Amino acid sequence: MANKLHITVVGSAALDTIETQSDHADNALGGSALYLAAAASLFAPVHIVAVVGDDFDMDQIEFLKERGCDLSGLEVAPGKTFRWHGRYHADMNIRDTVTVELGVFEGFSPKLPRAAAHAEILMLANIHPDLQEGVLEQMKGKRFVAFDTMNHWISGTRSGVESILKKVDLVLLNDEELALLVGGNSIFEGAAKLMKMGPKYVVVKKGEHGSVFFSQKGVPFLCPAFPLANPKDPTGAGDSFAGGMLGYLAATGDFDPMNMRRAVVYGGVVASFTVEEFSMRRLETLTEEEVHERYRQFIEMTEF
Amino acid sequence: MANKLHITVVGSAALDTIETQSDHADNALGGSALYLAAAASLFAPVHIVAVVGDDFDMDQIEFLKERGCDLSGLEVAPGKTFRWHGRYHADMNIRDTVTVELGVFEGFSPKLPRAAAHAEILMLANIHPDLQEGVLEQMKGKRFVAFDTMNHWISGTRSGVESILKKVDLVLLNDEELALLVGGNSIFEGAAKLMKMGPKYVVVKKGEHGSVFFSQKGVPFLCPAFPLANPKDPTGAGDSFAGGMLGYLAATGDFDPMNMRRAVVYGGVVASFTVEEFSMRRLETLTEEEVHERYRQFIEMTEF
Questions:
Q1: pTM of this prediction?
Q2: Which residue of B has its CA nearest to A261?
């Protein structure tokens, strides 16, 4: 195997309060950049670019350092760490946001250390599209850019989102975001429209129903979700999916369509571990070998 | 390939009035037995056991005769054919029943002609469990029994349903019926409970999200749905799925778990054609070669 590629993730670091119908977690580790890093660092070197407040306990992310994550781009700013409080319905596909306190995240202006700027793979997690543009400008010699956003930016800063779309390779989003962004009678129609706006690849995430990977060339890849008897907390599943997918791409350095499909499967497998426990507790202890083992189980479950 | 096995289907024959948000069909061919036969007869010989009224125009099912279906078990009784009128929401997973007129179906008492009684495969479609018991008693030398039911029978005649479950090999149902029948936090927990009640195999149908095939031995098979840009009418999709699956099993005569998985894929492929047009119009013109072609496309869409 060739040397592993490096991944830079730019997004949020947060402290989450999460309620489900049966349990809860308070001030637990969260945020897109941290979920992404926890997932991707199972496979490859990750540079984290995010901001926390001076109330943030760095011991909480010691496991990321141990996995080789570069934390030099994790800014500590005076003030409070971004906090999110969410509550899930019995149908865990639905959640309400109880409170959001942006804290230092409100003034976040990503500055990439030299090593982060030289990573071959960039993950632009869900932040303001203008900040995403700024990050793109700081990158040097990038090879592959993945992009995530949310309804808030699609509705409020559509032109910014459309501008970014011209510059990225892969978009990851759910069916609701896709419908808001491009309309369409189905995700198949929607993904085709989206790829005309720039991106070569689109992943539509459907939660417990799996995902579909679209490429400008060739037919879509239909990927079921790994089945779980008792999912506990879906928070961070989407970011873990992206992290697992990019981590596998970085580890293999192979952007061939068939290898990208395998990366999609790895994304789903990593996400399946995430939802087994609250917050990113399962990701903290997860090993690459456990991921490969579940990947092999997935092969058995989809062979015909 | 060995001689094809024969399939007997016992269920309803109906005239359906179907409304979607954009179109409708009046007095169109419907009913579980006819959908099953239309799908299964693409692959293997089918014996139909059902009842119609003297208002039923036999020319409508000339295509079934041309495909070699044995109609000698299709009773014509004095009175009106079973009529169902349904209306789909914008989300076509949800439908309201506007009216039901049982007509001659109310007095249906399946009598199997000799050829039907000797079929190796029996499909007990959605009818009263006591009638299903009566059919089982008439069968001679059957090898494989598949079973479908509905919420109405699960709620109203649970003991009858439970008694039948001990005598069948395969149950096909949707996630809602599974939850009503056995409870459980997930379809994976539910299917395990259901297999303890008798059946060796369970297929949980999830509509546009595909299906999962469970076997008492081995891991589940996760099967996505074939994607459609513009589905028109989901009526009969479940029966077409069952028909396609059993048709393929009959044609191959192979009940090995891996071949049963391929049969599940064929079921989904046939169902995908059904929903492309109202009623069973697409099934009427469908050819085995078209089904095989889409099966090959499905392989391409799921390979990794």
A1: 0.94
A2: B304
